[in-house]
Amino acid sequence: MKNAEENRRQWRNFAAFTLIVGLIVGTFSVVSDSLPIGALTVSELILSYLAVTINSLPLWFIFAMLVGYLFASSVKKAALFGFIYTIIAITFYFLIGNFYTDIPISVPFKERIGTYAIWYGASAVGGVSGGIVGFLTKKKPYALLILMAGLILQLFVSGSSSWSNVVGIAQNITFCLIIMGIIIRLTVLKDKRRLRNK
After folding, report:
1. How far is Cα 31 from Cα 101, in angstroms, rounded to an integer?
2. Maximal C-alpha separation, the chain
3. What is the pLDDT of residues 86-123, one digit of tens each?
4. I want to staple 55 with a disulfide (CB 3.0 to 4.6 A). Which of 29, 160, 174, 185 is the partner?
5. How far apart are CA 132 and CA 138, in angstroms?
């Protein structure tokens, strides 16, 4: 009885997180596709930074990790939660994107289906992987090295050109701070283990 109630509460919390965060991520991802060009106000700069950063692959992976870390009680459930969350987030992205633009874009049906298949397929793989990595970090913090490798790869993919504008600089600094946070956390855990073994 207790396990059933705990399982229901786990699913309720997961559903609330998925709907709220998935909607936010989907909305900001759509906004990042239509950023203002030219001189920006402070509020536009902040919005652009949030939109571009949230729409980046590392942040999508991190949100899937959070699902596995916060709500999953097993690797299988972490994979399922990561999958569901990411699929819902990408669905929000497509739905909101259809209403965001004033100019309807006519795309052939076959091409549209192909695009959806690629996006949903990639999102499913990323969501499952992120959920599992998030769950593993509960007992094996060194799983964070996978996230760190992804962040470093993103910095290389973005290249030196990403440091030529304010939004790109802010995003890169955010990734660098996350990398530093991971290194500090793993170093502290290593020192704690060393002290225990003495």
Report:
1. 10
2. 68
3. 999 999 999 998 876 654 555 566 777 888 889 899 99
4. 29
5. 10
